[in-house]
Write a structure and sequence with these properties.
Layout: H1 4-7, E1 10-16, E2 20-21, E3 29-30, E4 33-40, E5 45-53, E6 61-63, E7 65-70, E8 79-80, E9 89-91, E10 96-98, E11 102-106, E12 111-118, E13 122-123, E14 126-129, E15 137-141, E16 155-158, E17 160-162, E18 164-171, E19 176-182, H2 184-187, H3 190-201, E20 206-212, H4 234-241, E21 247-253, H5 256-260, H6 279-296, E22 300-304, H7 317-332, E23 338-340, H8 342-346, E24 347-348, E25 351-355, H9 369-378
Parallel strand pairs: 19-20, 19-21, 21-22, 22-23
Antiparallel strand pairs: 1-18, 2-14, 3-13, 4-12, 4-15, 5-10, 5-11, 5-18, 6-9, 7-8, 7-12, 14-17, 15-16, 24-25
Helix pairs in contact: 3-9
């Protein structure tokens, strides 16, 4: 019989997010700050390693110290996260770094807390907003990286995930990752409900790794500080975000922002009509930027249809026509290994341009929690 150390032979990403430019405000630096992110681990394993990202930062970020610890149990035993043997390390501007491997026995379903402390002035340019109520982190003023509890009077919850990009686990050979790639709709909770579904109903051998940034487009990106938080364009994002340890498949849900953003410079000087894609632009971009590179990585590629936009502030018949034509290609193209028909799962079946009952979050663009549950159910069984 193999011991645990002998059966854990494969590195697989068990959690992940993307990295983007954080929303520009008057304040771009922090000092004497602790960040803490709880993550439920879906596999049993014997070692962990961490990717830290400063991809969109213009200055290096010094992590004074970092730890991980199991949230459950009688004893809180933080284990130091090091990089090249150093407990304090730099994340260079525009780069991502991989930590050293650490011995960390953990069982499927347990939660680890990753804590980072930043003693000096730290540029907070690299992070991603996650809109799901099922994922959140915390920050605290002061050094509490090794403390079991953060002080109530000095800490708050945050839905911005700074610097922590991916967690890999040394686990069994059978385990693998599914990448969910997209924009703010994938920042919503459907990947989290899919994670719960896979954990409860699947074979227990797949992790759900979210690679999503609010506001991003396939073909364009904004260089003004007003919209920098809308992130990098697909051609810049994808080569970085698609490299996921142990990944076997990817769900691509992207393109709605390409359709709804352009309004003309007379309305918004940063959103010219020249940014408006044709159907051929969307299809060619999707194939060249996503499908072909994903297949070169050996991934199975699943398309996902775009959700209804009726009632959204820039909705018109031309945008609706383009959405429907692009969805038809996503459903029928032989370029994909399958299609996840999110549109069908959440639309009003008597008026398909609109969200169905209890599926609209209220802005006529983003799905409600009920819709996110339906979206998670729409993912084929073969992927979990």
């Amino acid at each position: 019989m193999k011991t645990d150390s002998q059966k854990y032979t494969k590195w697989v990403a068990c959690w992940g997010t993307a990295t983007s430019i954080t929303k520009r405000t008057e304040v771009t630096y922090s000092k004497d700050l602790t960040l803490r992110y709880p993550v439920k681990i879906c596999f049993s394993g014997s070692k962990l390693r961490f990717t830290f990202s400063n991809l969109t930062g213009s200055e290096g970020v010094k992590v004074t110290k970092a730890f991980c610890a199991k949230k459950s149990g009688d004893e809180y035993k933080p284990v130091a996260i090091t990089q090249n043997g150093n407990s304090s390390f730099l994340i260079p501007a525009g780069k991502e770094i991989l930590s050293d491997e650490i011995d960390f026995e953990i069982d499927s379903g347990e939660t680890v807390e990753v804590s980072m402390y930043f003693e000096g002035f730290t540029q907070m340019n690299a992070g991603t907003v996650i809109l799901s109520p099922l994922e959140k982190g915390f920050f605290a003023y002061g050094d509490y990286a090794e403390s079991e509890k953060l002080p109530d009077n000095l800490s708050m919850a945050t839905n911005v995930f700074y610097f922590l990009n991916t967690i890999d686990i040394l686990t069994e050979e059978k385990n693998h990752a599914l990448i969910c790639y997209g924009d703010s709709i994938t920042c919503c909770s459907w990947p989290d409900y899919l994670r719960e579904r896979a954990f409860k109903e699947g074979n227990g051998d797949v992790s759900i790794v979210r690679r999503a940034v609010c506001g991003t487009r396939i073909l364009r990106q904004y260089d003004c500080i007003t919209y920098q938080a809308y992130g990098l364009k697909g051609a810049t994002r994808f080569p970085i975000e698609s490299k996921v340890a142990g990944a076997e498949a990817i769900i691509l849900h992207h393109g709605i922002n390409d359709i709804i953003h352009p309004v003309g410079v007379e309305v918004n000087r940063f959103r010219p009509w020249s940014d408006m894609p044709t159907l051929d632009d969307l299809i060619d971009g999707f194939k060249k930027i996503y499908v072909e590179p994903a297949k070169k990585l050996g991934l199975k590629v699943y398309s996902a249809t775009l959700l209804p936009i009726y009632g959204w502030r820039t909705y018109n018949e031309n945008r609706e026509k383009l959405r429907n034509e692009f969805n038809e290609w996503l459903r029928t193209s032989k370029d994909f290994d399958g299609c996840v028909d999110f549109d069908k799962a959440v639309c009003d079946m008597t008026d398909k341009k609109a969200f169905g009952k209890d599926c609209d979050s209220g802005d006529h663009l983003h799905p409600s929690e009920n819709a996110c549950r339906l979206m998670a159910r729409a993912v084929p069984d073969e992927l979990i």
